[in-house]
Design a protein that fits this description.
Layout: H1 3-9, E1 12-18, H2 26-36, E2 42-47, H3 66-77, E3 80-85, H4 94-103, E4 116-122, H5 130-142, E5 146-147, E6 153-155, E7 162-163, E8 166-167, H6 170-194
Parallel strand pairs: 1-2, 1-3, 3-4, 4-5, 4-6
Antiparallel strand pairs: 7-8
Length: 195
């Protein structure tokens, strides 16, 4: 067995975070589909943010709210993040920014520090949420996370990419597959650098 195949078989844990709270969210559906595209050694846990309260510094102590503690633990346990978000009013949804604010604590030593992150946006509009993508990237960079440096994964006209609840658009699937490959390569590169 070569070192490349050994590296490829090393278990990898991804945390998928949806920036939408809707039960029928296209972003959550995209993340569910991403989970079906992963190699055998890679697992994905999907989380939504509906139970995370608004950030309050008075609650940000040794015992944070339970949903916050669960989110931060899930981030800490993950080797990388996959975030899929809509764009609201040209920007990042409040629920996602709120979660990033909670997860960014303690400053410069949070579970987000050094965490590779693939950012995906999806929108019914023609631009696919690229303005939100830029804001998500900036917010993550401020936490010392590692948003992937690669072409944007922005899915326009998102409702047309699904058929009977399944993501079927070939271009979108190819774009997601390439992005997942880049995320896994970054995770393995960092693991190798750590020894």
């Amino acid at each position: 067995m070569t070192s490349d195949s050994t590296t490829a078989a090393t278990p990898v844990r991804l945390l998928a975070i949806s920036g939408s709270l809707r039960a029928a969210s296209h972003c959550t559906a995209v993340l569910r589909h991403v989970g079906t595209m992963l190699p055998a050694a890679v697992t994905q846990q999907l989380t939504t943010l509906g139970q995370v309260p608004l950030y309050d510094g008075d609650l940000d102590g040794a015992t944070p709210p339970a949903a916050v503690a669960e989110l931060k633990d899930a981030i800490a346990q993950a080797d990388g993040l996959v975030i899929c978000s809509p764009e609201y009013n040209y920007g990042i949804p409040g629920v996602l920014k709120n979660a990033i604010d909670w997860a960014s604590r303690p400053g410069f030593a949070s579970p987000l520090k050094g965490k590779p992150a693939l950012i995906i946006t999806a929108s019914p509009g023609a631009l696919g949420g690229v303005r939100a993508q830029a804001q998500i990237r900036d917010a993550l960079a401020a936490t010392l996370a590692r948003p992937l440096s690669r072409p944007h994964v922005a899915i326009p006209l998102i409702a047309t990419r699904f058929q009977d609840g399944r993501l079927v658009d070939t271009t979108t699937l190819e774009m997601l597959q390439a992005a997942i490959g880049d995320l896994l390569a970054e995770i393995r590169l960092l693991a190798a650098a750590r020894g």
